[in-house]
User: Fold this.
Amino acid sequence: MSNLTTKLTPLQLHVAFWDYNNDSIITPAEIYHGFRDLGFCILFSLGGLLINLFFSYPTTLGHSWLPDPLFRIHTSSIHKAKHGSDSGVYSSDGNLRLMLFDEMFDRMDSSVADNTSTIKTDKREGSLGVGDLFRLHAKNRVAADPAGWSFAAMEWWTTWLLLQRDGRIWEKDLRAMYDGTLFWKIRDERKRNEDMTRGYGWQDWVGGLWNNGTWKTWEVRNERKVNIEVEREL
Assistant:
């Protein structure tokens, strides 16, 4: 991927992970295998084929008025698949608006309520919880755009499942996801069988409800850590 970074926009880099043979085309099979490499289950990865269903034609418009019968996505015109009611972090030509990215955390990060200042420093990394994401989605919804509302909801849901740590999406991870570098990192970590500290799967949901009566497994884990520290102090 390193040879391509100087030629692609951030949005193109964001989707380059799924372009397995670097031909600027993402097939339904590549979408499926990409989600599997990121750790998603078979059912979720099959659901990812909706990406090709909805975004193939917008990207094909950069090359032809006729729809692609194979539902392929053309990464060279991926900016044409940009939809309404999104975060606005990507511009219409696929570049990152870093000021809007920072503003998203400044305005939506509920954890700042516990601090005396809402200004981030080098010692504090912004994060977004589930409630923050609901508020962000509601803020970005524009009138008469049910398709955009749905796409944005699916994108944030997928992002939280992939990135959450302690129930929150952290600023550094989300920034790396926007430019695509995090996808390669997660795949390499999984290949090396490293202990993954981010993400949320059906095992977490079922195990949390079965063993602890809550799907918020991070709260149980953090409570146990606190209890262990208290016991050590005693």
Observations:
- The chain has a mean pLDDT of 89.
- The first strand starts at residue 25 and ends at 26.
